[in-house]
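I am going through a labmate's work and have reached the protein record below. What it holds is a sequence and that sequence's fold in token form. Please read both lines and tell me whether the tokens look consistent with the sequence. Do not assume that whoever made the record got everything right. Thanks in advance; the entry in question is below.
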Amino acid sequence: MPVSKYASKTKKKTAKRANYKFPKHWSFSTWKVATACMARFEYQYLQKLPQPPSVHMERGTFVHKLAEDFLDTPKQGRVPKELKEFADELKAIRKAGAQAERSLAFTKSWQETSPTDWANCWLRVKIDAYLPPGDDGTATVIDFKTGKPWKDTADQSELYAVAIFQLHPEVQGVDAEFWYVDSGEVVPYFFSRKDFKKLKQKWTARAQEYLAKRQFPPTKNAYECRFCPFRSDKELGNGLPGPCEAWKKAK
């Protein structure tokens, strides 16, 4: 593997670290990567190294598109086979007026803005399916997942709740549900309006801490390193070896 060739490219990139254009906005996915490993954040979002193809990511994107198309097509009768575990539920939420792939964006002062407002957008939130509040004042957020349940859904559900409470003062409760399309499992969370202030403060502080980071140490965590696309024993999308060797000492 052309290690020396890649090393020379890495040196050129890291030499320009002071010129990185650090992001002024964030999302749950970028926060999650930074929290797991700042080295990976650097490779993925600052150096923008090409990641190797991932069949799991490709399938996840494909399944999300199937769900979006089904919810947006009232006359489509048959639920795609990839979503058969939730066939009845998908028909029910479509009938109830579920909004697919809803994109939300906020300024630093938590005012609503456009996701393409590059000058002022501070946070972007993408919701797979959203159901407005019913008679009980509870709105529902649904996130479609493939594979097995992940440990980060509690954090993600909190951010969904903050976004909905901020945008809709009439909402008194938020059901955040994660639908695992392969197993048919549902992981639910519920938040009431009284949780809003505390959660908003929590995520504002987390965002400020995240956006202020300027050091990029590797995590050396066996779980995180196992799935990292930038390991030195893997090939990047350009065929060169990944830059990180921290996985060798991960615990």
Summary: Residues 55-71 form the longest helix (17 residues). The chain has a mean pLDDT of 90. The chain has two domains: 3-52+219-249, 55-209. Residues 3-52+219-249 form one domain.
